[in-house]
C-alpha cells in the first residue's frame, strides 16, 4: 500500500475507508483523538463484548476512565509485578519435559492469563477457573474476528456449533467476572485493580463514583487485552529465537550472566536484561499481535490533502508501519540489535507503535514490556525451545490479533542452570490506587 501514497483509499465491502501508510500521518491521527475517535467495525463488536470500557469508550469518557486505572500501571508499580511474572513463568516451564513437544502458545496463554488475573483480582480465581478463562478467551477471540469481517448479524444468531461455542464462552467469562465482584462486595478491601474499582463504586476513592456495570466492563476489558496479545508476543519470540540461533545465544549469555546464581529475575535485574528487552522490542516490530486498528472521524476534516467526511473510517496498521523498508531497512530480518541503546533513529522510534500513541496509547505498555522481558528471561534460564523437525514456517494468519496461534516446539533442558535452586519468591506488591509504589 505505501507504493500508492501516504493515505490510500480502500473498500471494506460497500464502505469506503482510508489506510494510513506513513508513520507521521499515523501520529497525526492518533494525536487528535477528538477528530479521529475510536470506532469502526472492530470497536463496535468489541463494545458489545467489553461494554463501555477503556478500550472501546468514546473520547469524551476516556479521561476519567484512564485516571481511575492509571495508578495500577505506573512504572513504580509495574516493576513490583516482576516476581509475580517470574513465579508464574517458573510454574509453566517446570512442567515441560526435555525432549518432548510443548504447546507453546497454549502455555503462554496460561501464563499471561494467570498473571493478568492476579494483577486484577489477586487470588480470586483458582487454578481451574483460570484455566476455564483461558479456554473461553480462545473461543471469544476466534469468534470476534469472524463477526468483525462479516457484518451480517443474522448469520451469528444461527445455532451453529461455532456460534454456540462463542456465546457459551462469552456468557461464562461474564459470569466469572460477576462472581469475583460479588465475592468481594462487603468484604475487606484488597490492594488490586478490583479493589480500586470497588472503592470508586462505593464512592470511597478519589475518583468520580462509578457503577457496578462499569466495574465489570473495566475488568473484562483488561482481562481480554492483557492475556491474548501477550501470549502471542511471547510465542512469536520463542519461534523467532529458534530460527535465529545467534540472537538466541546472546539472549542465553545475558540471562546466564545477570542471573548467574540460577535465580529467577527480580525488579533490580530488569535494567541489566537489556538484550532480552531488545528481543521483546524486535518481536513486537517484526510480529506485533495488534496489527490493524480503526478510527472514525467525528467531523469533516482534511488528512494528507484529502477531505474526509464525518464518519469516515481511517485505518492504521502497526504491521504495515513496522515492515516499511523506508523506516526499517531489511524489515523481514529479525534483528534485536536495532533496539540497542543509541541505535534506533528518532524516525524509527516514531514508526514503532505496537501500543499505539497519544492519549489512547495502551495503558499497560510498560507492564507488557516488563511482563514479556521477565517471562522470557525466566523461561530461557531453565529451558530452550527449538523447532519441531520438519517444521515449515507459514505466513501469519490475521484475526482480531495476529501471531502463532498453535505453536508447538521441542523442549531442551538448560541443565547447567536448572540444577541451581531458585530463590524463594519475594512478597509481591499488588496495584493500588495511590501514586506511590506501582503498563495494553
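Sequence proposed for the structure above (440 residues):
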Amino acid at each position: 500500500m505505501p507504493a500508492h501514497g501516504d493515505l490510500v483509499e480502500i473498500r471494506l465491502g460497500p464502505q469506503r475507508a482510508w489506510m494510513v501508510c506513513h508513520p507521521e500521518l499515523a501520529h497525526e491521527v492518533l494525536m487528535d483523538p477528538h477528530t479521529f475517535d475510536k470506532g469502526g467495525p472492530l470497536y463496535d463488536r468489541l463494545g458489545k463484548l467489553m461494554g463501555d470500557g477503556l478500550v472501546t469508550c468514546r473520547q469524551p469518557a476516556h479521561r476519567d476512565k484512564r485516571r481511575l486505572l492509571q495508578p495500577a500501571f505506573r512504572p513504580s508499580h509495574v516493576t513490583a509485578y516482576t516476581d509475580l511474572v517470574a513465579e508464574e513463568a517458573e510454574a509453566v516451564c517446570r512442567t515441560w519435559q526435555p525432549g518432548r513437544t510443548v504447546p507453546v502458545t497454549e502455555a503462554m496463554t496460561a501464563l499471561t492469563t494467570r498473571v493478568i488475573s492476579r494483577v486484577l483480582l489477586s487470588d480470586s480465581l483458582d487454578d481451574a477457573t483460570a484455566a476455564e478463562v483461558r479456554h473461553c478467551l480462545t473461543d471469544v477471540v476466534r469468534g470476534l474476528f469472524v463477526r468483525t469481517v462479516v457484518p451480517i448479524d443474522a448469520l451469528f444468531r444461527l445455532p451453529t456449533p461455532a456460534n454456540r461455542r462463542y456465546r457459551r464462552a462469552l456468557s461464562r467469562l461474564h459470569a466469572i467476572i460477576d462472581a469475583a465482584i460479588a465475592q468481594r462486595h462487603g468484604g475487606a478491601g484488597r490492594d488490586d485493580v478490583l479493589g480500586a474499582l470497588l472503592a470508586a463504586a462505593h464512592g470511597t476513592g478519589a475518583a468520580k463514583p462509578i457503577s457496578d456495570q462499569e466495574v465489570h466492563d473495566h475488568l473484562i476489558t483488561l482481562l481480554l487485552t492483557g492475556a491474548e496479545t501477550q501470549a502471542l508476543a511471547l510465542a512469536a519470540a520463542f519461534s523467532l529465537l529458534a530460527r535465529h540461533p545467534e540472537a538466541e545465544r546472546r539472549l542465553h549469555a545475558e540471562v546466564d550472566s545477570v542471573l548467574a546464581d540460577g535465580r529467577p529475575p527480580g525488579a533490580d535485574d530488569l535494567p541489566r536484561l537489556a538484550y532480552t528487552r531488545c528481543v521483546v522490542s524486535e518481536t513486537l516490530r517484526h510480529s506485533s499481535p495488534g496489527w490493524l486498528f480503526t478510527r472514525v472521524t467525528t467531523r469533516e476534516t482534511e488528512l494528507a490533502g484529502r477531505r474526509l467526511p464525518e464518519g469516515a473510517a481511517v485505518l492504521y496498521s502497526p504491521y504495515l508501519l513496522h515492515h516499511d523498508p523506508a523506516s526499517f531497512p531489511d524489515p523481514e530480518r529479525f534483528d534485536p540489535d536495532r533496539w540497542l541503546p543509541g541505535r534506533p533513529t528518532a524516525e524509527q522510534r516514531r514508526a514503532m507503535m505496537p501500543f499505539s500513541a497519544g492519549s489512547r496509547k495502551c495503558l499497560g505498555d510498560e507492564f507488557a514490556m516488563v511482563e514479556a522481558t521477565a517471562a522470557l528471561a525466566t523461561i530461557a534460564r531453565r529451558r530452550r525451545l527449538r523447532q519441531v523437525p520438519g517444521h515449515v514456517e507459514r505466513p501469519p494468519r490475521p484475526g482480531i490479533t495476529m501471531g502463532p496461534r498453535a505453536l508447538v516446539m521441542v523442549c531442551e533442558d538448560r541443565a547447567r542452570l536448572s540444577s541451581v535452586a531458585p530463590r524463594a519468591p519475594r512478597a509481591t506488591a499488588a496495584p493500588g490506587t495511590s501514586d506511590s509504589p506501582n503498563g495494553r
